[in-house]
Specification:
With 292 residues, the chain is an alpha/beta fold. It is built from nine helices and 13 strands.
Length: 292
């Protein structure tokens, strides 16, 4: 393989940037809006910072689309350094604006360098799972069409399951999708929602609810088993667990049950970025799995 390939994504992977095992990787930062003020992730403005403000100040935060200018600049600076650029983008149904920007930028550079935009149909760890498996793919092939085909298979075989103690944060952020049906549930009930890569609509869907973290964690494990049986998957190729660190006991419990119940080649304990705190809300966590 002789092609020089660059991968671009954003800070909504469910894993730390230092957990991406690819030298030619760059990422953009999603703007987070609190009132009229815009924030980008930094040592000061982190997921834990925003989650704490949610709890203490009852603020509302929203994310904006990635910057067209920043994406254009990043690709423009690397046109002569690579033979192919691949962008792993948040699900288009979750952020149509971001995916449309990626497509417009791709068109802008069509005579200078080929760009492949992968619509992940995911957020948080789901994007990270697609990214990690994509890195495995480009170790074996640099053919554009083969990469597109196999990346599409990764997307349709990636599934995310989230425990969101308060769906109002997801609702205020404008990403709730069909899970809106669970709003207004009885107090002290924990909703489980999901993003299913084999769903062409790519919407967040309600999956169930429980009264304890033990119940919802077991529910998630059963959902994963069902998907594995449906897809005739013998194991999980990569899984990412991440969430609000203040709910570490529940996250660790899910990790322990997953490790003891599901065959998995690679399990990554990730971290939330600033923008991901909007999706999860206080106490939120989840697991994303790829079966391809």
């Amino acid at each position: 393989m002789n092609k020089r390939i660059m991968i671009i994504s954003a800070d909504n992977l469910g894993i730390g940037i230092d957990q991406v095992p690819y030298q030619h990787f760059e990422y953009l930062k999603y703007p987070v809006l609190i009132g009229e003020k815009e924030y980008r992730e930094s040592e000061t403005y982190s997921a834990s910072w925003l989650l704490e403000r949610f709890v203490k100040e009852k603020i509302t935060a929203k994310s904006s689309s990635l910057s067209r200018a920043e994406m254009t600049d990043l690709i423009g600076k690397n046109v002569n350094n690579y033979d192919l650029i691949i962008q792993v983008v948040m699900g288009s149904n979750m952020s149509a604006a971001t995916f449309n920007i990626a497509e417009e930028v791709k068109e802008k550079f069509k005579d200078l360098i080929p760009v492949i935009n992968i619509d992940s149909r995911q957020v948080v760890g789901g994007i990270g799972a697609v990214l990690l498996r994509l890195i495995d793919i480009i170790k074996t092939t640099d053919d554009d069409e083969t990469i597109k085909k196999q990346a599409g298979e990764l997307v349709t075989n990636t599934f995310s399951y989230y425990v969101t103690p308060d769906l109002n944060y997801l609702n205020r952020g404008g990403r709730i999708g069909k899970a809106k049906a669970l709003l207004g549930s009885v107090l002290r009930v924990l909703p489980v929602i999901g993003l299913m890569g084999d769903d062409p609509e790519g919407e967040i869907v309600p999956l169930g609810q429980g009264r304890t973290y033990k119940q919802v964690n077991s529910m998630i494990i059963n959902f994963i088993r069902e998907k594995m049986n449906e897809n005739k998957a013998e194991d999980i190729t990569v899984a990412i667990i991440s969430g609000d660190e203040s709910n570490r006991d529940a996250i660790d419990s899910l990790k322990k049950e997953f490790e003891s119940s599901i065959p998995c080649k690679k399990l990554v304990y990730g971290k939330l970025h600033l923008v991901e705190a909007i999706y999860m809300g206080p106490g939120g966590y989840g697991i994303s799995v790829c079966m391809k």
